[in-house]
Give the backbone structure.
Amino acid sequence: MKEGQTLWTKEELTLAINLYSKLLFGQIHQGNPQVKALADLIGRKPGAVALKLVNFASLDPVLQQRGIKGMGNASKLDKVVWNEYLQNWDEKYMEGEVLLAQKTHTTVEKIYNINLDDYEETEGRETTRTVKVRLNQSIFRDVVLSNYNNQCCITGLSIPGLLVASHIAPWSKDKNNRLNPQNGFALNALHDKAFDKYMITVTEDFKIKIAASFYTYKDVSSIKQNFIDYDGKPLIEPRKFYPKTEFLRLHNEIFASK
């Protein structure tokens, strides 16, 4: 360590990896306003924050698959924080959001425009549960839609009001991956419904597959245009987080059993 430098704390690394999860690799540089903002928040130079984000990039398996290696100077604590993040995305992402809110003198609810006054009439414990569900849904939508550049990953539709952040492994069945962007697709409302009903799926090589029953209606133009024409076509690729194979495999298996 150079003279005058101080070791990064786990709190600082929690904030750094939270920011890393929101940026593309090409956005990691000292001139990025978000990098500058975090640097001001934790009392470090933008260049130091950018370097720490690049260290995280060296641990990212998605970037490794693309041949991007980062700096390779990750510390032991960097690796600990990274592995904790991978193993428990929901808890660690929320931990970062809460910490960021505290540091900026606000709340996560305010950041995601959750109006607590809307829940005043609900009983205490039920209020907490309802707010948490609403907050989780808002966070998941924000991360997933951003990951697909605010467009449906099947059709390319880019009208936000018509888009849904759709879970691959259902919300009710996988409580540990409710916020994980690797468990989500950005879909328009029609294809979200079909995906939820296992009438369409996405294969492990990221190809769209539709139920054979759609071909019964192949002469219906709306069925052809919205479903049959997409059968076997590649999914529009995400910007950062690719869906996990285990989630896709689970959806494929249920799709095949229908």
